Protein: Heterodisulfide reductase subunit MvhD
Amino acid sequence: MSKPFEPKIVAFVCTYCTYAGADLAGTSRLKYPPNIRMVRLPCTGRISPMFILKALQKGADGVLVSGCHPGDCHFTHGNYHARRRWTVFRALLNFTGIPLERIRFSWISAAEGVKFAELISSLTEDIRKLGPFEQYKAMIHETEAPVSL
Ligand code: FES
Structure:
């Protein structure tokens, strides 16, 4: 008998806010699904759309990008750069064949452990409903054009 599908979700988070929010969720003993593989970066301004493509190419079924709220970035403008980059990348998603529902962008502060746990729960449930993401991996395999960072 095969196991039910459990999505793999890669979360690119900034260390000052969302990572601290995740830490708060953990220390508060809030429950959320264990489907997240967290990649901690200094700021969302460092997150390239290529990271998202690479994660999906390497087997992720969904991706989360999350950092400090606008105005709270520890590097002043990093999250504004990330938001602009996300706006452009979102417009290109149709071209790449990646459904928008597989990628989520959010702001979570260090004080928002509950929000973090709720977001992970809802994202995991949404990706579970979508099922495994094989199309993009198959596409990459066909063209043999791996994404490099
Ligand atoms: Fe958190 Fe810039 S330091 S988004």
Q: What stands out?
A: The first helix runs from residue 18 to 27. The pocket of FE2/S2 (inorganic) cluster is lined by residues 14, 16-17, 43-45, 67-68, 73-75, 78-79 (CB under 6 Å). The helical segments are 18-27, 49-57, 78-96, 113-130, 135-143.
